[in-house]
Amino acid sequence: MEKVVLGFSGGLDTTFCVKYLTEDKGLEVHSVIVNTGGFTEEELKKVEAHAYALGVKTHTTVNAVKGYYESIIKYLIFGNVLKNNTYPLSVSAERLSQALHIADHVKKLGAKLVAHGSTGAGNDQVRFDMIFQIMIPGVEILTPIRDLQLSREAEIDYLKGKGVQMNFEKSAYSINKGLWGTSVGGKETLQSKGMLPESAWPTPMTKEGQSEEMVIGFEKGEIKSVNKKTFTHPTEAIQYIQAIAGAYGIGRDIHVGDTIIGIKGRVGFEAAAPMVILKAHHALEKHVLTKWQLSWKDQLAQFYGNWLHEGQILDPVMRDIEAYLVSSQEQVTGEVFIQLNPYRFQVAGIESANDLMSAKFGKYGEMNTGWTGADVRGFTKIFGNQTSIFHQIKDENKK
After folding, report:
1. Do 166 and 54 belong to one domain?
2. Is position 34 within any domain?
3. Which pLDDT tens digit goes with each residue over 339-380?
4. CA–CA dist 34, 95 (Å, integer)
5. Which long-range contacts (CB under 8 A, 24 or more apart) does 165-170 make?
6. Nearest of 109, 67, 96 to residue 311 by alpha carbon
7. Cα–Cα distance measured from residue 200 to residue 223, given in angstroms and rounded to the nearest whole number
8. Judging by DSSP bridges, how do beta strands 252-258 and 264-270 pair with one another?
9. Which DSSP symbol is given to 362?
10. What average pLDDT does range 195-224 have in this prediction?
11. Among 212, 241, 207, which Cα is nearest to 226's?
């Protein structure tokens, strides 16, 4: 019997894939779940039990949380990356980490087939296919949902016909949870107008009418403390921030973007920790980095985020940009003060030994101590000299 490695989450699509590949195609399915921070130990055990109940030959759980941070998330923070100024690349980033680990599992088992549950309309199909083609060339890629062009309703009917027991009402929404946020897709996101109902958001808002201050400590761009509590690894700090800020309903939004295959798409997401962290980190950078450091970082980070979103994590140019981002964080150390409120937050300010906004060099809009008025007069004359020459010649030529 031919082996096929299936990237498995336990959701509707991959549940369908197990039944279809085993019973309709007669394949020996080896499921693998790559945990990028979206599952508790209890949830992972339930996914494993579900996989075996469906009929897989083996099921493997890969803990990729810290590796996911070190290889991708760290650079998204350093670059303050938000796709279209909105989306923190929650799913985009984790799919690449998952695809790489699935490819490793295929090599380990010596399988000739690999499968994923992506549809034919989204970005994930490109990300998985491309990583597999690069990392495990020659291995055939199976995509039942895409090939059969199935709706979620059709998948549910098929599974009910096979006697599969699961929460099909919950399956009305496609939920992908990870360390860097959770995406939510449903009927409301399949059209240009409509907001997800409160019941669709995975994290309920439980702190209505409350507010609190949060203090995030950064060291060379990485989170070292939250409210004076220190952590052995930044992933723990991210999860800690998510637990606090998520209860305020912070970080909920709908992203409208251009897919890799050229169509527009909408997806809901909740990303309390990413949104708070990115805004806090950016606020600190604006105090401790120079104008041109910030300018070039913005340009490179935008390219990095776009290229990552399109699945190009293996392009060597990404390593070059990552090296620049690491270098840019040398002075990014200090504390950022944030006010959390229901559905929103504000950055109140920063404290850093590297703060360039120092009173000893002058106060913006008031007095300066580093130069005289005569210095400014001379500087402005030289600074605008070439533009002045341009306009003088232009005026002379009009005569």
Report:
1. yes
2. yes
3. 999 999 999 999 999 999 975 655 555 666 677 888 888 898
4. 9
5. 166/12, 166/15, 166/50, 168/12
6. 96
7. 30
8. antiparallel
9. B
10. 94
11. 241
140-153 confidence digits (pLDDT tens): 999 999 999 998 89
Q: Within a domain: residue 363?
A: no
First to last CA, the chain: 89
Dist CA 29 CA 56 (whole Å): 5
**Nearest-angstrom CA–CA distance, 119 and 341:** 37
- The string of pLDDT tens digits covering residues 110-166 is 999 999 999 887 889 999 999 999 999 999 999 999 999 998 899 999 999 999 988
Place of tokens 């549950």: 117
Residue 170 gets which letter from DSSP? Answer: G
Helix, strand, coil percent content, the chain, rounded in steps of 5: 45, 20, 30
The tokens for 382 are 């030289």
Global pTM reads 0.89
Strand partners, 31: 6, 59
Q: Which residue has the tokens 């980070």?
A: 301
Residue 360 placed within a domain: no
Give the domain range for residue 388.
368-394
Which alpha helices (H) appear in 55-138, and where do they start and end? 65-68, 74-78, 90-109, 124-135
C-alpha to C-alpha distance for 246 and 240, rounded to whole angstroms: 10
Task: Write out the DSSP string of 187-238.
Answer: GGGGSSS----GGG-SS----TT--EEEEEEEETTEEEEETTEE-SSHHHHH
Number of domains in the chain: 3
